[in-house]
Amino acid sequence: MAPLDEVVATPVMGIGRSTGAAPVDAPVRFELPDGVSRPPPAGSGPARGARDRWYARGAMDLRDSPSEEKFRDEVRAWLADHLTGEYAELGGRGGSGDETFGFEVRRRWELELAAGGWTGLGLPVEHGGRGATIAEQVIFNEEYVRAGAPGRVNVMGEGLVAPTLAVYGTPEQQARFLPGILAGTELWCQGYSEPGAGSDLAGVQTRAVRDGDEWVVTGQKVWTSLAHQADWCFVLCRTEPGSARHKGLSYLLVPMGQPGIEVRPIRQLTRTSEFNEVFFDGARTAADNVVGQPGEGWRVALATLAFERGVALLGHQLGFQREFERLVAEAVRRGLTSDAVVRQRLARAYGELCIMRYNTLRSLSGVEGPVAPPEASIAKLYWATWHQGLTELAMDVLGAGATVLDGFPYEAGDFQRSFLFGRSETIYGGSNEIQRNIIGERVLGLPPEPKGTQ
Ligand SMILES: Cc1cc2nc3c(=O)[nH]c(=O)nc-3n(C[C@H](O)[C@H](O)[C@H](O)COP(=O)(O)OP(=O)(O)OC[C@H]3O[C@@H](n4cnc5c(N)ncnc54)[C@H](O)[C@@H]3O)c2cc1C
Q1: 164 alpha carbon to ligand 1 midpoint, in Å?
Q2: Which helix H or strand E contains 237, and what residues bound it?
């Protein structure tokens, strides 16, 4: 891994010491507090030797190995060649909270990525993936964000269903579904949450019954991201009548474009509709489209959740870093780096960003496959809280202007969109309260929370 001082593209401000008012557009540097050393600069020959000696003193060595360096060069070169024209014009947009932006172009970009062999990075080669190591996946994500490539459209398919099928799917399911996911031609959505089953997912009530060679699904899902774009949905549903909690559930793969499914968009704070209510009223899927044994869907569903928290996190964090850098530049532009409180808050945000990165690298090192629950909970709690705080700081930096939209077509700006969508980050993927419960019980060994009597 490249060390942080190389990764940070340097905008602005002396952190850790008072340098007085920063003139607008002044060149900006990150300075470490006195007494904290940084590695000697990169280079070859004697320079490389100095860095080797620095790391040999016990500092965590996050440098790329020679083969990782080669991989990084390959990723950079491919992105430089292909991220052009309409793809470059997207300006890196289309991420969380911005999913509707340039959707069709981003769909074409998926095909381009697939043709270049950049989908299914971590998936074993025998399943059509690239078989990349964790370090290589991290490198790809870092370079992807650094290049300003657009938000991906099939995260649910590639990041959640594909690895789940690789582990739990039958050879027939793998042969049927993996090629479409990896080619970027079949999009997926996740049908877990229901009005009465969110944090308490074992409360799922949507049911499926066998009718000859098919399952017939009835019930309601909610907050289903991109259900309006998806071709398929992985649905957690109850297949054993009278069963309770995590018993008697099955993990079904259900085609979306059929009369038994109605998708109703939910309008969000950002004024877009990325998630939906999904009503199943006699929707059908083939009997073979159950992953794992019928009635044992809970185990499969948890495996999918674990994949949700893997290496994509680091790319995510590089996105945060770029947002932080833009915010610092904005603060400089507004002459706010002479404001002691703003300076202090930016400095704190930067320190916490570094902590987040090193903790993620630590929890990923030596890990192949999904990240284990306690580390995943700590990481989720940390990044969601940190990022929400950064978006609040951004609103303070923008001042009163943060409360109004620019002229027609009255779209929220980057910071405004991030602030509005940021409210959901401490909810989806397991809310902060749930993460704290997991950390309390499984990491700190505190007594379990009292269970309800229902
Ligand atoms: C942007 C976004 C996208 C989403 N995409 C999807 C998707 O694609 N597919 C999907 O299936 N779901 C999706 N979700 C749903 C998400 O998983 C749920 O919102 C989340 O699990 C919380 O469930 P809930 O909304 O039902 O809230 P609830 O579980 O009802 O919780 C309400 C409040 O009570 C708190 N709470 C609940 N239980 C406890 C407890 N035991 N201890 C302490 N506090 C507790 C929660 O922290 C929360 O503050 C998405 C959500 C968002 C916001």
Answers
A1: 22
A2: strand 232-238
